[in-house]
Amino acid sequence: MIEEIKQLFKNYEAKAIGQQNKYSVLLPLVEVEGQWHILYEVRSSVVSQPGETSFPGGGVEEGESYKEAAIRETMEELNLPKSSIEIIGEMDYILTQSHIIHCFVGHLKIEDVDSIKPNKEVDEVFTVPLSFFIENPPEYHGVNMKTVHDERFPFDLIFSGEKYKWIDRKHFVPFYRMPNYYLWGFTANFTHRFIEIIDKHN
């Protein structure tokens, strides 16, 4: 038995426990008039969360790597050839009970942002200089997450039963104050982490 277990774990690839949906996004860098910018999308009414700001990205398809998904989704949403997308590397990812979201930093090798003609999932694209995010850190606001049990919860299988002290968690959500667009949540989180990483080395 132990030898079988050893074989099972010899090349086992560790992953998060649960049934999380897998997503991948690209944080796109573009050069605008000699300055480096981050490019964002405004989601259209044909997709979930219309009007919100996001990065190009979406669900990882069967047999596809996170990197391949980020490239494919960027090609589809921005109508760009693969040759226009240079992957620089992967940064930190987000893990929740329902989502795993990987984020890749990429360089869009395009002449002009106005030349981008996105597909129907995107209402518009816009860019923000890196200097804006370096000079304007996000605000983090708390959301209280309360533990609620269903009526069949087996308290009898816990030593202290209904007296068990569950921890009500506080989730902190980042927001950037921008004049014309919304930027918060996962997209703001990735943006802030990216700025933290590059700012440490300047």
Brief summary:
This protein is of the alpha+beta class and 202 residues long.
Give a verbal description of the structure.
By secondary structure, the protein is α+β, with helices and mostly antiparallel strands. It has one domain (17-199): Nucleoside Triphosphate Pyrophosphohydrolase (Alpha-Beta Complex), CATH 3.90.79.10. 21% of the residues lie in helices and 34% in strands. It contains 4 helices and 11 strands. The chain has helices at 2-10, 66-78, 130-135, 185-199, and strands spanning 21-32, 35-43, 53-54, 57-59, 85-90, 94-95, 99-108, 122-129, 139-145, 169-176, 183-184. The strands form 2 sheets. Strands 1, 2, 3, 4, 5, 6, 7 and 8 form an 8-stranded mixed β-sheet that branches. Strand 6 (94-95) and strand 7 form a beta hairpin. It is globular and about 65 Å long.
